[in-house]
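Q: I have 308 residues here and want to know how they pack in 3D. Can you give me a structure?
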Amino acid sequence: MPQGNTIETRRTLGFLAAALASSFWGCGFFFGKIALAEMGVGAMVFYRFAFATVGLLPLLLMHRPKFSAAEWRTLLLCSFLGVPAQFLIQFRGLSLTTVSHASLMVGTMPVLLAVGATIFAHERLNGLGWGALALSTIGAALIALGAEHAVSANGPTLAGDLLVVLSLVIALFWVLLNKKLMVRHNHIVVTAYGVLAGTVMLAVIVPVMYGVPPVHGVSWKAWAALVASGLLCTATTTLLWNWGLTQVPASQAGILLNMEPLIGSLLGIFLLHDHLGGLAWLGGAMILAASVTLTTRSSPQMEEAALG
Protein backbone atom coordinates (compact mmCIF):
# COMPACT_ATOMS: atom_id res chain seq x y z
CA MET A 1 0.00 0.00 0.00
CA PRO A 2 1.43 3.45 -0.91
CA GLN A 3 2.66 5.48 2.06
CA GLY A 4 0.07 8.22 1.45
CA ASN A 5 -2.77 5.72 1.68
CA THR A 6 -1.25 4.20 4.82
CA ILE A 7 -1.09 7.60 6.49
CA GLU A 8 -4.65 8.42 5.48
CA THR A 9 -5.97 5.05 6.68
CA ARG A 10 -4.16 5.40 10.00
CA ARG A 11 -5.53 8.92 10.37
CA THR A 12 -9.10 7.83 9.63
CA LEU A 13 -9.05 4.85 12.00
CA GLY A 14 -7.41 6.91 14.74
CA PHE A 15 -10.07 9.59 14.48
CA LEU A 16 -12.81 6.94 14.39
CA ALA A 17 -11.47 5.33 17.58
CA ALA A 18 -11.31 8.73 19.30
CA ALA A 19 -14.83 9.59 18.14
CA LEU A 20 -16.25 6.28 19.38
CA ALA A 21 -14.47 6.67 22.71
CA SER A 22 -15.81 10.19 23.11
CA SER A 23 -19.34 9.10 22.20
CA PHE A 24 -19.29 6.33 24.81
CA TRP A 25 -17.79 8.73 27.36
CA GLY A 26 -20.75 10.97 26.64
CA CYS A 27 -22.98 8.30 28.20
CA GLY A 28 -20.92 8.33 31.40
CA PHE A 29 -22.55 11.40 32.95
CA PHE A 30 -25.99 9.96 32.18
CA PHE A 31 -25.25 6.62 33.86
CA GLY A 32 -23.44 8.40 36.68
CA LYS A 33 -26.44 10.59 37.44
CA ILE A 34 -28.63 7.48 37.75
CA ALA A 35 -26.23 5.89 40.24
CA LEU A 36 -25.75 9.13 42.18
CA ALA A 37 -29.47 9.09 43.00
CA GLU A 38 -28.80 6.09 45.27
CA MET A 39 -25.19 6.45 46.45
CA GLY A 40 -22.46 8.99 47.00
CA VAL A 41 -19.75 10.12 44.59
CA GLY A 42 -17.05 7.87 46.08
CA ALA A 43 -19.10 4.69 45.89
CA MET A 44 -20.28 5.42 42.36
CA VAL A 45 -16.73 6.03 41.06
CA PHE A 46 -15.37 2.96 42.87
CA TYR A 47 -18.00 0.62 41.43
CA ARG A 48 -17.56 2.11 37.95
CA PHE A 49 -13.85 1.24 37.95
CA ALA A 50 -14.35 -2.08 39.72
CA PHE A 51 -16.60 -3.22 36.88
CA ALA A 52 -14.14 -1.80 34.34
CA THR A 53 -11.36 -3.86 35.92
CA VAL A 54 -13.50 -6.99 35.71
CA GLY A 55 -14.05 -6.28 32.02
CA LEU A 56 -10.31 -5.85 31.45
CA LEU A 57 -9.38 -8.98 33.42
CA PRO A 58 -8.83 -11.18 30.31
CA LEU A 59 -6.40 -8.57 28.95
CA LEU A 60 -4.61 -8.40 32.29
CA LEU A 61 -4.10 -12.18 32.19
CA MET A 62 -3.00 -12.23 28.54
CA HIS A 63 -0.55 -9.30 28.61
CA ARG A 64 2.38 -9.02 31.00
CA PRO A 65 3.82 -5.57 31.72
CA LYS A 66 7.49 -4.89 31.00
CA PHE A 67 7.84 -1.46 32.56
CA SER A 68 11.09 -0.17 34.00
CA ALA A 69 11.07 1.21 37.54
CA ALA A 70 10.76 4.76 36.20
CA GLU A 71 7.90 3.71 33.91
CA TRP A 72 6.08 2.05 36.80
CA ARG A 73 6.29 5.36 38.66
CA THR A 74 4.92 7.15 35.60
CA LEU A 75 2.09 4.61 35.29
CA LEU A 76 1.15 4.99 38.97
CA LEU A 77 1.14 8.78 38.71
CA CYS A 78 -0.91 8.52 35.53
CA SER A 79 -3.36 6.16 37.26
CA PHE A 80 -3.75 8.47 40.25
CA LEU A 81 -4.45 11.48 38.04
CA GLY A 82 -6.67 9.61 35.59
CA VAL A 83 -8.79 7.68 38.09
CA PRO A 84 -9.24 8.91 41.69
CA ALA A 85 -8.18 12.54 41.15
CA GLN A 86 -10.04 13.11 37.90
CA PHE A 87 -13.22 11.13 38.53
CA LEU A 88 -13.85 11.99 42.18
CA ILE A 89 -13.64 15.69 41.32
CA GLN A 90 -15.57 15.30 38.08
CA PHE A 91 -18.52 13.46 39.58
CA ARG A 92 -18.61 15.78 42.57
CA GLY A 93 -19.13 18.46 39.96
CA LEU A 94 -21.83 16.36 38.31
CA SER A 95 -23.65 16.08 41.65
CA LEU A 96 -23.85 19.89 41.70
CA THR A 97 -24.91 20.46 38.11
CA THR A 98 -26.91 18.81 35.31
CA VAL A 99 -25.86 16.11 32.87
CA SER A 100 -26.23 18.56 29.98
CA HIS A 101 -24.07 21.25 31.55
CA ALA A 102 -21.40 18.79 32.74
CA SER A 103 -21.26 17.27 29.26
CA LEU A 104 -20.99 20.61 27.51
CA MET A 105 -18.18 21.75 29.81
CA VAL A 106 -16.13 18.90 28.31
CA GLY A 107 -15.88 21.25 25.33
CA THR A 108 -12.95 22.88 27.14
CA MET A 109 -10.90 19.68 26.91
CA PRO A 110 -9.79 20.05 23.26
CA VAL A 111 -8.41 23.49 24.10
CA LEU A 112 -6.57 22.19 27.16
CA LEU A 113 -5.25 19.20 25.24
CA ALA A 114 -4.06 21.25 22.27
CA VAL A 115 -2.22 23.69 24.54
CA GLY A 116 -0.77 20.89 26.65
CA ALA A 117 0.34 18.86 23.62
CA THR A 118 1.97 21.96 22.14
CA ILE A 119 3.88 22.78 25.32
CA PHE A 120 4.78 19.31 26.58
CA ALA A 121 4.71 17.07 23.48
CA HIS A 122 5.78 19.66 20.87
CA GLU A 123 2.79 19.00 18.65
CA ARG A 124 1.55 21.76 16.36
CA LEU A 125 -1.77 23.27 15.29
CA ASN A 126 -2.11 25.78 12.48
CA GLY A 127 -3.92 29.13 12.66
CA LEU A 128 -7.26 27.57 11.73
CA GLY A 129 -6.88 25.07 14.55
CA TRP A 130 -6.13 27.71 17.19
CA GLY A 131 -9.05 29.83 15.94
CA ALA A 132 -11.44 26.91 16.29
CA LEU A 133 -10.10 26.15 19.75
CA ALA A 134 -10.66 29.77 20.78
CA LEU A 135 -14.27 29.43 19.56
CA SER A 136 -14.65 26.33 21.72
CA THR A 137 -13.29 28.17 24.76
CA ILE A 138 -15.76 31.03 24.34
CA GLY A 139 -18.56 28.50 24.00
CA ALA A 140 -17.60 26.84 27.29
CA ALA A 141 -17.51 30.26 28.98
CA LEU A 142 -21.05 30.98 27.77
CA ILE A 143 -22.23 27.69 29.25
CA ALA A 144 -20.71 28.61 32.61
CA LEU A 145 -22.31 32.06 32.52
CA GLY A 146 -25.67 30.47 31.79
CA ALA A 147 -25.29 28.23 34.84
CA GLU A 148 -24.53 31.14 37.16
CA HIS A 149 -28.07 32.45 36.95
CA ALA A 150 -29.83 29.12 37.57
CA VAL A 151 -32.53 29.22 40.26
CA SER A 152 -33.68 25.60 40.32
CA ALA A 153 -32.45 23.49 43.22
CA ASN A 154 -31.76 20.67 40.76
CA GLY A 155 -30.40 22.91 38.04
CA PRO A 156 -26.85 23.68 36.91
CA THR A 157 -24.45 25.62 39.12
CA LEU A 158 -21.25 27.47 38.37
CA ALA A 159 -19.43 25.53 41.12
CA GLY A 160 -20.43 22.21 39.56
CA ASP A 161 -19.39 23.30 36.08
CA LEU A 162 -16.01 24.56 37.31
CA LEU A 163 -15.30 21.30 39.16
CA VAL A 164 -15.88 19.45 35.89
CA VAL A 165 -13.41 21.79 34.17
CA LEU A 166 -10.86 21.21 36.96
CA SER A 167 -11.17 17.46 36.40
CA LEU A 168 -10.42 18.05 32.71
CA VAL A 169 -7.21 19.90 33.57
CA ILE A 170 -6.17 16.81 35.53
CA ALA A 171 -7.24 14.60 32.60
CA LEU A 172 -4.87 16.55 30.34
CA PHE A 173 -1.84 15.21 32.21
CA TRP A 174 -3.35 11.71 32.22
CA VAL A 175 -3.60 11.82 28.41
CA LEU A 176 -0.07 13.11 27.90
CA LEU A 177 1.49 10.64 30.35
CA ASN A 178 -0.41 7.78 28.72
CA LYS A 179 0.84 8.85 25.30
CA LYS A 180 4.41 8.93 26.62
CA LEU A 181 4.10 5.38 27.94
CA MET A 182 2.58 4.12 24.68
CA VAL A 183 5.66 5.19 22.73
CA ARG A 184 7.38 2.07 24.13
CA HIS A 185 4.51 -0.13 25.35
CA ASN A 186 1.36 -1.65 23.88
CA HIS A 187 -1.77 0.45 24.45
CA ILE A 188 -3.56 -2.60 25.90
CA VAL A 189 -0.94 -3.02 28.63
CA VAL A 190 -0.97 0.70 29.48
CA THR A 191 -4.78 0.74 29.59
CA ALA A 192 -5.37 -2.46 31.55
CA TYR A 193 -2.70 -1.94 34.19
CA GLY A 194 -3.47 1.76 34.46
CA VAL A 195 -7.14 1.07 35.22
CA LEU A 196 -6.20 -1.73 37.64
CA ALA A 197 -3.81 0.54 39.56
CA GLY A 198 -6.39 3.32 39.67
CA THR A 199 -9.04 0.94 40.99
CA VAL A 200 -6.72 -0.26 43.77
CA MET A 201 -6.14 3.38 44.72
CA LEU A 202 -9.90 3.94 44.86
CA ALA A 203 -10.27 0.88 47.10
CA VAL A 204 -7.98 2.62 49.59
CA ILE A 205 -9.15 6.22 49.19
CA VAL A 206 -12.93 5.83 48.96
CA PRO A 207 -13.58 4.04 52.31
CA VAL A 208 -11.41 6.60 54.11
CA MET A 209 -12.94 9.69 52.49
CA TYR A 210 -16.51 8.56 51.79
CA GLY A 211 -17.16 5.42 53.84
CA VAL A 212 -17.56 1.83 52.67
CA PRO A 213 -19.53 1.66 49.38
CA PRO A 214 -23.05 0.26 49.88
CA VAL A 215 -23.96 -3.22 48.68
CA HIS A 216 -27.53 -3.61 49.94
CA GLY A 217 -30.39 -1.26 49.18
CA VAL A 218 -29.17 -0.45 45.66
CA SER A 219 -31.71 -0.94 42.89
CA TRP A 220 -31.13 -3.04 39.79
CA LYS A 221 -31.36 0.18 37.77
CA ALA A 222 -28.39 1.68 39.61
CA TRP A 223 -26.38 -1.55 39.30
CA ALA A 224 -27.10 -1.68 35.57
CA ALA A 225 -25.94 1.94 35.21
CA LEU A 226 -22.74 1.12 37.10
CA VAL A 227 -22.03 -1.94 34.96
CA ALA A 228 -22.59 0.11 31.80
CA SER A 229 -20.36 2.87 33.18
CA GLY A 230 -17.58 0.39 33.86
CA LEU A 231 -17.68 -1.78 30.77
CA LEU A 232 -18.83 0.68 28.11
CA CYS A 233 -17.82 4.11 29.42
CA THR A 234 -14.50 3.15 31.01
CA ALA A 235 -12.93 -0.11 29.79
CA THR A 236 -14.05 0.18 26.17
CA THR A 237 -13.51 3.92 25.91
CA THR A 238 -10.02 3.87 27.40
CA LEU A 239 -8.92 1.08 25.06
CA LEU A 240 -10.29 2.93 22.04
CA TRP A 241 -8.89 6.29 23.11
CA ASN A 242 -5.41 4.98 23.89
CA TRP A 243 -5.25 3.14 20.58
CA GLY A 244 -6.39 6.29 18.77
CA LEU A 245 -3.53 8.20 20.41
CA THR A 246 -1.07 5.80 18.78
CA GLN A 247 -2.43 6.79 15.35
CA VAL A 248 -2.97 10.57 15.52
CA PRO A 249 -1.52 13.40 17.67
CA ALA A 250 -3.22 14.09 20.99
CA SER A 251 -3.97 17.69 19.98
CA GLN A 252 -5.91 16.44 16.94
CA ALA A 253 -7.61 13.45 18.57
CA GLY A 254 -8.75 15.71 21.40
CA ILE A 255 -11.07 17.58 19.08
CA LEU A 256 -13.20 14.44 18.81
CA LEU A 257 -13.84 14.71 22.55
CA ASN A 258 -16.59 17.12 21.57
CA MET A 259 -18.70 14.11 20.67
CA GLU A 260 -18.99 13.67 24.44
CA PRO A 261 -20.86 16.93 25.09
CA LEU A 262 -23.10 16.23 22.11
CA ILE A 263 -24.12 12.75 23.29
CA GLY A 264 -24.24 13.68 26.98
CA SER A 265 -26.35 16.78 26.42
CA LEU A 266 -28.84 14.96 24.22
CA LEU A 267 -29.22 12.19 26.81
CA GLY A 268 -29.68 14.77 29.57
CA ILE A 269 -32.29 16.70 27.61
CA PHE A 270 -34.37 13.82 26.26
CA LEU A 271 -34.06 11.26 29.07
CA LEU A 272 -33.46 13.31 32.23
CA HIS A 273 -35.42 16.41 31.13
CA ASP A 274 -32.52 18.81 31.63
CA HIS A 275 -33.04 22.38 30.51
CA LEU A 276 -30.48 24.49 28.63
CA GLY A 277 -30.75 28.29 28.55
CA GLY A 278 -30.05 30.44 25.53
CA LEU A 279 -26.40 31.06 26.42
CA ALA A 280 -25.79 27.34 26.92
CA TRP A 281 -27.31 26.48 23.54
CA LEU A 282 -25.15 29.14 21.87
CA GLY A 283 -22.06 27.90 23.69
CA GLY A 284 -22.79 24.31 22.73
CA ALA A 285 -23.21 25.29 19.07
CA MET A 286 -19.86 27.10 19.15
CA ILE A 287 -18.15 24.06 20.68
CA LEU A 288 -19.54 21.70 18.07
CA ALA A 289 -18.73 24.13 15.24
CA ALA A 290 -15.13 24.18 16.41
CA SER A 291 -15.12 20.38 16.50
CA VAL A 292 -16.43 20.02 12.96
CA THR A 293 -13.97 22.61 11.65
CA LEU A 294 -10.92 20.96 13.14
CA THR A 295 -11.99 17.44 12.26
CA THR A 296 -12.76 18.17 8.61
CA ARG A 297 -9.86 20.55 8.00
CA SER A 298 -7.06 18.72 9.82
CA SER A 299 -3.88 18.05 7.91
CA PRO A 300 -2.60 14.48 7.56
CA GLN A 301 0.89 15.83 6.83
CA MET A 302 0.87 17.83 10.07
CA GLU A 303 -0.29 14.74 11.96
CA GLU A 304 2.50 12.65 10.46
CA ALA A 305 5.09 15.23 11.52
CA ALA A 306 3.70 15.42 15.02
CA LEU A 307 3.68 11.66 15.39
CA GLY A 308 7.29 11.49 14.22
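Q: Anything worth noting?
A: The chain has one domain: 8-307. Residues 69-96 form the longest helix (28 residues).
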